[in-house]
Write a structure and sequence with these properties.
This protein has seven helices and nine strands; from the N terminus they run ββαβαβαβββααβαβα. The protein is of the alpha/beta class. It has a five-stranded mixed β-sheet with strand order 1-5-6-7-8, with no helix packed on it. A four-stranded mixed β-sheet has the order 4-3-2-9. The two termini are 21 Å apart. The mean pLDDT is 93.
Length: 206
């Protein structure tokens, strides 16, 4: 996929919305450890809040890329897309997705990963983070999800390494950690945030 000439503040990325997931909702979870739950009384409240936040930022003509684990429960992706103002929404799948149901949204389902360029900036989008990706030493960006902000907050050597590269967890829980809101990441913010990160890697030769 190639995007050219689209204002960078009209391109958004997110992941791990987990709409319909009672376990991640503090008021309905069965988890013993509630420290990683979202502070909502009901899953319906959580769903509405996240969708309202998306619609407040992402208008009809913007582009929204959702990098896996969007829905739990019935996983009706057709109905979900109808709730969004944006008409240019594209989904990849994560480990909790229903691929059969994702196929019902046709070309809006992009498979397990996306390689794209935005005004010649190369982007690789994977649900799970990877430590090496194509053209990383030439400045390509890796966008991931799955970890719900844990890598950004970790002091583990692998996390330190990944955080030093042009890579970002665009999961909605990481957005909450950074901004205090469950919102998608705007592409111009991503570019600015990663501008000072390394484009070289001692373990990559491409």
């Amino acid at each position: 996929m190639k995007l050219k000439g689209i204002p960078h503040d009209k391109i958004f990325f997110s992941a791990d919305l987990h709409l319909g997931h009672k376990g991640i909702c503090r008021g309905q979870t069965h988890w013993d450890d509630k420290s990683k739950c979202r502070d909502f009384d009901t899953v319906e409240e959580m769903n509405s809040h996240i969708i309202e936040n998306i619609n407040s930022l992402v208008d009809e003509n913007s582009y929204l890329f959702l990098n896996g684990d969007t829905l739990f429960g019935e996983k009706d992706y057709v109905a979900f897309l109808a709730l969004l103002k944006c008409k240019n929404v594209y989904l990849t799948h994560g480990n909790h997705c229903n691929i059969t149901k994702l196929n019902l949204i046709g070309e809006k389902y992009l498979g397990s990963e996306l390689k794209m360029s935005i005004d010649k900036q190369l982007i690789h989008m994977y649900h799970h983070p990877v430590i090496s990706w194509d053209n990383m030493s030439k400045g390509s960006i890796m966008i991931y999800g799955h970890v719900h902000g844990s890598i950004e907050q970790s002091n583990h050597p692998i996390a330190d390494y990944l955080n030093s590269l042009r890579a970002l967890d665009v999961g909605i829980d990481n957005a909450y950690n950074l901004f205090g809101k469950y919102v998608p990441f705007r592409y111009d913010w991503i570019l600015e945030s990663l501008r000072q990160c390394s484009i070289k890697s001692e373990i990559d030769y491409h």
